[in-house]
Amino acid sequence: MIGEISAALGSVNTAIQIAKAAIGVQQDVAVKLEVNKMLDAVLEAKGGLLAASETITKLQEELREANAKLAALTDLSRFEYRELLTGATIVAVKNGHQASEAEARMVFCPKCFEEKSLRLLQSETDDSYFRCFACTSLFKRDSREDEAIERANSSRHY
Q1: pLDDT tens-digit map of 81-115
Q2: Which residues contact 137 (CB under 8 A, 6 or more apart)?
Q3: Cα–Cα distance between 90 and 112 in angstroms, integer?
Q4: Is the whole-model pTM more than 0.85?
Q5: 97: which DSSP letter?
Q6: Which helix (H) or strand (E) covers residue 113, if one does?
Q7: Rounded-to-integer distance, Cα 56 and Cα 5, Å
Q8: How many Å apart are CA 104 and CA 123, to the nearest integer?
Q9: What's the DSSP call for residue 76?
């Protein structure tokens, strides 16, 4: 698609050069006006092709980014459900699975996980709940959880 647009742009540039040459050669004013109209139309077409090329490039980049995110999220087998001291269930990286230090401390929404989506749970301002901003679920937490998670993570080998 990009190659075709590039070839079309080359043809448009050639047409522009021919039109400019024709203006210089022609002596008749009416012919010059018509050639100018044609040149304007060709320039407008060139602008449209350039805009289309930019849009295609942008969409290709967005597709690459989306595919990279999808690839990162498709390995959901690295995660497991965990029950908190409060009885609430969250999702976290399985013990024994390689994870970055930051990822190992993260907890994810179990409702979104059921839908094959990893959504990070955020602490509420008073730290008594985790909230999922994707599905708006709340999960009761206990501050002792942080210490337990920290101990479990410190025993991991990265």
Answers
A1: 988 888 888 998 887 777 777 777 788 999 988 88
A2: 109, 111, 131
A3: 10
A4: no
A5: S
A6: helix 110-114
A7: 10
A8: 16
A9: G
